[in-house]
Amino acid sequence: QSEYQAVMGSNPSFFQGANLPVEQVSWNQAVAYCDALTVQEAAAGRLPSGYEYRLPTEAEWEYCCRAGTTTEFHYGAALVCSQANFV
Q1: What is the pLDDT of residues 23-48, one digit of tens each?
Q2: Do 1 and 20 touch, CB atoms closer than 8 A?
Q3: Which of 18, 34, 74, 80 could form a disulfide with 53 if both were Cys (CB 3.0 to 4.6 A apart)?
Q4: Both ends of the chain: CA-CA distance in Å?
């Protein structure tokens, strides 16, 4: 939260704490943060030319969430009733 506040000038989080993640932001606010951080870091010379901060794509997020698994599901090749979340 402290990093977000330093860049954006505000902290919209309900659960306050300098080292806690920011919550209560929309996708558009997260993109605005990435854009502002890119400008700030580039101006300070800490970001190589052509680089930018951005949110991960859906495919990148899925790849990270799978943690290197190769089966259809993260826990194996088949889904059984005890693993499904349904009513």
Answers
A1: 999 999 999 999 999 999 999 999 99
A2: yes
A3: 34
A4: 37
